[in-house]
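Pasting as-is:
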Amino acid sequence: MIAIKNISKTFRQKKKVFKALDDISLEIEQGDILGIIGFSGAGKSTLIRSVNLLEKPDHGQIIINGKDLTQLNSRELAKERKKIGMIFQHFNLLSSRTVFDNVSLPLELEGVHKTDIQKRVSELLKVVGLEDKANEYPKSLSGGQKQRVAIARALANDPYLLLCDEATSALDPATTQSILQLLKDINQRLGITILLITHEMDVIKTICNQVAVIDKGKLIARGNLEDIISAKEHPVIKQFILPKTLNIPPSISSKLQKESGEDLYPVVEVELNGNLPFEKLLAVLYNDYHIPYKLISADVEYVANSSFGKILLHLQGSSEQNQRVIHYFSKNNIQNNIKGYA
């Protein structure tokens, strides 16, 4: 449905040249929810704004439903843009217009009859759960409600594509989840393709069936979530996917020694990279190695049938048992790091 082909974009500020996009190509199938993730300055916003040519690329093609938008004249482009909805981080609502009037604005600009506007806006407010807020003004709404109004407005012209530019970044975690579930519902019920950008991996995990990772204007990975997580050897992906080093509780860290000794046992940080389920790892320790241990902490994500993340174990077997277990980790490509002995 959507083909982004060899898009590049360079900005010039004073005497400095900054390449925001560097020969990026992506294909997005109809009905996909593609999440584009990257750090601040990676080129995410430039890329998503290139899709509807709010940002015109220096070269490359944006092909949607067989039409190359970069080759259209202004009138033809305006017509295509009507079928591409866009949601922004800061809502962009008009404070002087009610909820109903904000949603109806695109339809008014199209010259739609008032009766049809009434019907369409009422339907959209029901979709986003704001039927009872039609006559209120943005100042009386919460952040989540404002974003729901913005979503309804983006759907006014019955788009086939929805672009989300950091649509949940200004919201608290609970509200973020409700907005993401609304977008997922819209995607499933209305069949609208969604392209969103974010710097939060939780957003990707919640609703995206496809992921693209960009860094310094380059596309560095593309696939489903499991593909991306499995490709974590790339340093940028690793920063998004894996949890930071787990904290060792003060009750243990205060006693931690650098060298082993009598009555001192290794505290081991173990990284799960998808090749062994978390539960199976614990079962191996208990059933195969018969080693006593304490699970100090865990930060584990489940993707399909795989486990990714880190766990902190305090092995409490004999010196020989502990070494056998650590050897097992290394032999099975399970990264591990002895943090000390306690």
